[in-house]
User: Fold this.
Amino acid sequence: MPTNTFLNLSEEKQKKIIDAANKEFERVPIEQVSIKNIVETAEIARGSFYQYFEDKDDLFEYVINLKMGDMEKNMKKIIEKEDGNIINVFTSLYDHLIKMGRIKKNNKFFRQIFGNIRTSDNFMLIRKETMNEKLNQNLYELYEKNKEILNVKNEQEYKLIIEILSAVTRRRVVASLKYKDLAEARKDYLKEIDFIKNGVLKKE
Assistant:
């Protein structure tokens, strides 16, 4: 996320840098983004860029949050809505991400982002280390509420369930981009969630 040096800039200068970033992110996939192009368009020194952001991924994370809203706040709203039920939380998170993708699909920035997703690991609205620190912490705090409904023996097993749900949800959000019918995509996602809830072996 941006440094205090960036946040202390005038709104006009911040906007100029973000506009330059938007232009570059719209032009090419994140892997091909050029910091050189950003600083030249924003009319700042390359050294100044690194006083404002750690790298282009850091800038990308900030721009995504500006466009899609703070994911941590969204997660807290979802948790409250679902009364902390971890299975329902992930289902609502899936719906939220799909909805945001549909709303933004005609936006050039989001066409570039979503159009170049290839794997679930590419679908990072925020980077993994930040996700672990911010979003997952909110989920870990739900252990006491969920230990009565989940087949887990301890908090470590509960965290493993979160990892599984995270992986399935990310992968299914990416897979949904290949579906013409989003209802069908959601149906397949819920099938996987049902397997997690009920297991894959027949009951004896």
Notes: Residues 6 and 42 are 13 Å apart (CA to CA). Residues 122-128 have pLDDT under 50 and may be disordered.
